[in-house]
Amino acid sequence: MARVRQILFVLLLVGAVARADFDLSRPPTAQDLAEIRRIGWAQAADMIEGGLTAAWKPSHFAQAGSTGNATFRQWQLLYRWCRLLGTPEPEALRAFLGRRVLENPEKPGALLIIPPGMSLPTDATGRLLPTAADKLSVARVPAEILQGLLPDDYTPQAGPVSLRAKEDFLAALASDPGFLREFFRLLTPDDFAPVVLTRLEQLYSAHPGRWADYRSLMLAFALVYDQRPPSFWPHAQVRQEAVQPMDEPLADRLGYYIQANENRRLEFDLRRLPAEQLKFLVDAPVPRSELEWAAKNVKVRRDQFDRAFSLVAYDKRRVERGVFSWPHGRYLLGNIELQGGICVDQAYFASIAGKAKGIPTIYFAGQGTDGGHAWFGYLQSASKWELDAGRYLNQNFTVGQALDPQTWLPITDHELLYLSGRAARGGNYDAALGDLAMAAVFERKGDAALQLAAATSALYNAPESVAAWEAKEAALAATGDRAALQAHFRSAIEAFRRQDDLKVRYQARLAELERDGGDARAAQRLADQMVRENRRERADLSTAAGSEAISRLLGAGDYEGAMREYRDLTSKLGRTGGGNLFYNVVRPFVLELRAAGREQDAQKALQRARDKMHFEKDSILAREFSELEAVPGSR
How many structural domains are present in the chain? Predict the structure, then answer.
């Protein structure tokens, strides 16, 4: 049967050859690459696309689709490489900046950027909100936008993206299927490809003989350093003038890691880790001396690296005095160890020390019963993350917030575990990625039927892929088929019944669909379900759902209804909500009531929260309550 499918697939490709001008029935050859270079990346992309779209068939229970064929996937990866390199850079710049640019509500015609480290704007269901991309002139990008998002060495240019690196280098990458596979597995719309290519060539040129062994490490560096890190890196509780910047070119930092790896001084062999993990190793823009200090002085091994957190003595007096920002001059590892610190300093120390020793690490922060806390995660083995190092489990820290250094967008510990687990290791995952790429092609061509077929095929190949669920939703939304969307959301809720974040996302979307369709009762049942199901283990999700309901009532001017919702929510979440309940519900509700001149209601809301919530009298959350109560006019 497999042989018959292979023959049928080849026949389909042969039928497309005349239209493609490339023989897609066998893997790309050196002659094909020479022809691509002769005609140019953009024209080659157009030609290959014709053959791929003519030959593509979806996967379903009775048929193995095209993207399950290795030859088809090789041509598809080459096509995506050609399409990327042939894209005019102004178009790539608009696509990147457009996700981060908003209209300034206080200055008509002016633009604001969403700075690195902040979430892209979404609605209550997790869908991205429209930005001001259509008002952005890439011919005259304001300097403050470029300087806020992209590196100092980037200057816009008018040609294709391929001009960012030498032709021979780009052609060499085009002939490396392993690189293309890893590259397109990781590349997102929030990476800036022109600078990624620049970084790759810089690193390759500095260490040309190391590409075969350290290709993934170079890719990790390129994906992390294509844009600026957040201005508050590494966290908001240290003044930026105390943080020492990286003091060497990126190629030299790569050389440090290569030499340390070759001398077997690291806890992992960096040649064996993928870029998806290595990006959490190279995201340390600190002086070389910091890495050398940690390599020499931190003696904890990988299998017990959670102990690195407690190498910094906890400074309880700082907390008692309310000194939450670093007060001891330069923010250096040796100084932190000498002076001691609070949780943010312990987590930072451990995470940088891990990176120095060749261990991918992540700095986390979250809200618990008594308020905020910081801890860290680290790669314990090649396939296992330990994400609770320094986390106080009795404080009910339901979710850890971190930054994905590839894009500097927020990511949670739950998302990281899911994305690095079976969702990315399924046998047909690459086939699903191929289908998603075809769905994007068909969408651009305006072929809604094939777009839906490709998204459905991707979902068949990888039912755990969030991108596949999103792609099919987009295709169904374009058809306006409300019943199909309802069925899609219900299927997603069932598929993600053990992934709370994703389950809630699709519950919220189904509730929105029911509400828009006039079934307010069904929508309310879903909202109540979201609060009820998550109030113990994922209070952050329960408070988010409750906050959205209160905001909707306030927006309609229904203060009595909002107060009833608030009373119900504080009853259900008072014991478990902690900082999530305070910051997402209590404080915004109280401030909204005060802004509306309803001071008596604000006082009742504050008192109810105090009665229902449980936190230590000297905790951060106790301080926050006192500050909110002390606002002028609140008594």
Answer: 2
